[in-house]
Amino acid sequence: MSIVIILGNNKVSCVSLTVKDKTVNILEADSRHVDDLSSFLSSADGVKSLLSSCFGGDLKAAAEHKIYFAFTAGSGLAYKTWQAAASSFSDVSDKTFADKEDRILSLCIENVPQGFVDLYKDCVASIVSCYEDDEVYTVTSAYLPALYINNIKEACETLGLTLFGISDIASSFCKLINCSEQQVLVRANGLTVIVNQFGSLVFMLSGDYSDSIGDIIYNMIEHYYPINNSRMNSQTVSSSDLEPFLLLPFNGLSRYNCEMSVIAAGCVVDSKMLAAGAGNAETVKSNPDKGGSENSVIGKLRKLFEKK
Amino acid sequence: MLSVNYGNFLRKSETAKAAYEFKRPVYQFIANTVCVFCLAGAVTSGLALAYAYMATPKPAYSQELYGKAQSLNNNLSRGAALMKQGRPRGVNAYEIINKFANARPADVTLTDIVISPDQYTVKGFTPNQDSVNAYISALDFGKGKKAGVASISNNKGTNEFTIIVHVDEQKAAAKSSPQSKGSGK
User: Fold this and answer.
1) Inter-chain contact A168–B7, Cβ cutoff 8 Å?
2) Which residues of chain A are within 8 Å of residue B3 when distances are taken between CB atoms?
3) Which one of A74, A116, B124, B137 is least enclosed by Cβ atoms within 10 Å?
4) Under an 8 A CB cutoff, do A164 and B5 touch?
């Protein structure tokens, strides 16, 4: 079982779920109001007390599960979509995966949103999506204060919890929303996420969504991605009605908050599993005469040889 | 695809470490099981070896009898060696005894062997008279040495016989002609 703690605008949600046989099972979800979330996240003790309240003091039981954190709008999260030359993302001197990771994340930090560093001294970046052109890469990255990340790590280590990931709302949507046929514009509380086959764009919107804002968003999409007339092939959906657009079936989605469930599932679901599922579906579709479901021995062997 | 942990603020190494830490009890259990299995195997093998070593019965014998047997064996070996080497009056006694013994049918029992430069005499008994003939035929001492039955008598179903091998045929003919039976000594 995995437990995802979703940190929002002075709101903390705790979702328990499992992912089995490519189905997400939401077991439990609970939300509570927190007066000043940033004060909790600003110290390791604050995070500890937050975790204690989430697990009802039973931290031993929580230690047996995978723990994830997910940030949503209003929790200190920021996004930016930026472009850089493809050559700047790699260098011959980068020998290890860590070297490459360092280079890319330092590029993200160079492109931190203006004003974010004024609020927080240091920040940590994560890549939500990346569209790789021949010459230019278009990257959407998320930013969080380094203080929050360090405190979460420290608190989890002190309490003996296994921290598997710290994610964000847009990454979860990108991972789980099926955008192969159309672009999906998800309107969540405090932000709008656009997911298409090339990548994503995130707009932190505190006010109501209007047509003029929509124009700006669609223009931005056409600016960053090779899409013409993006408004025509776009579907706008609320984060509470995401079920028809999801790549995986969810059990118990109707009982719990849809947005919370999708964010939690996005943290837990392995992107390799989604890619493998899509690959197999494609293979079966394009080669109906060859037969063999993804679980059959022949299907597995074919997959193995295709990889090689 | 960039070399980063997509959608995660933790580095790839950190998530890998977390995955390892999460599964560590399982790895530990497997490692401990293998260790216990190997240790148990080693202990069991050691115990089995020790038991096999301890359970081997020690030979039980009397020191007095052992000494006697050893001295007898030494004497026999020495006697056999002497017999092999000794040639009293040009007679190879060892070879002659060997031939008498090797030619003997299974149901023939020898009781006495006398060897002299002129003749070799062997006494014995057998339940079957044909065995005496077979024994005579099997005795081959070479040219000029002819074996013959000196006497044979039946005593309660047992045929006692005396065979003489004459070294010089002419002398043998002269000696054997006056009597059909004789001790041959």
Assistant:
1) yes
2) 97, 100-101, 104
3) B137
4) no
**Rounded Cα–Cα distance for residues A251 and A25 (Å):** 5
Q: Which residues in chain A are classed under CATH 3.30.420.40?
A: 2-77+147-269
Chain-chain contact of B3 with A66 (C-beta, under 8 angstroms):
no
Interface check for B102 against chain A (CB to CB < 8 A): the answer is no
Domain boundaries, chain B: 92-176
The architecture of the domain spanning A2-77+147-269 is: 2-Layer Sandwich (3.30)
Tens-digit pLDDT profile for residues B95-149: 888 889 899 999 999 999 988 888 889 999 999 889 999 998 888 888 778 888 8
Q: Does the beta carbon of A172 lie under 8 angstroms from any beta carbon of chain B?
A: yes
A28 beta partners: A16
Angstrom distance (rounded) from CA A175 to CA A167? 11
* B92-176 belongs to CATH 3.30.1360.100: yes
Q: What is the pTM of this model?
A: 0.64
Q: Sheet containing A123-132: give its strands across.
A: A78-85, A136-145, A123-132
ipTM attached to this prediction: 0.80
**CA A221 to CA A223: how far, in whole Å?**
5
Left if phi > 0, otherwise alpha if psi is -120 to 50, otherwise beta: which for A34? beta
Please tell me the distance from the alpha carbon of residue B108 to that of residue A219, in angstroms, as a whole number. Answer: 126
User: Residue A11: beta bridge partners?
Assistant: A33
How far B33 CA sits from the closest chain A CA (Å)? 21
- Whether A7 has its CB under 8 Å from any CB of chain B: the answer is no
Cβ–Cβ below 8 Å for B7 and A266: yes
Residues B163, B167, B170: CA angle, nearest 5 degrees: 105
For residue A95, the chain B residue with the least C-alpha distance is B3
Chain A from 186 to 245: CB within 8 A of any B CB: none
Q: What is the DSSP string of B44-74?
A: HHHHHHHHHHHHSPPP---HHHHHHHHHHHH
Q: Hey, which bits of chain A come out as E strands?
A: 2-7, 11-20, 23-33, 66-71, 78-85, 123-132, 136-145, 162-168, 183-188, 191-195, 200-204, 234-238, 250-251
A104 vs B2, B8, B9: nearest CB? B2
Residue with the two structure tokens 């999409």: A221
What does pLDDT average to in each consecutive run of 10 residues of chain A (308 residues)? 88 88 85 86 89 82 87 89 86 82 87 84 89 88 91 90 90 87 86 89 80 85 85 84 84 81 87 62 39 54 60
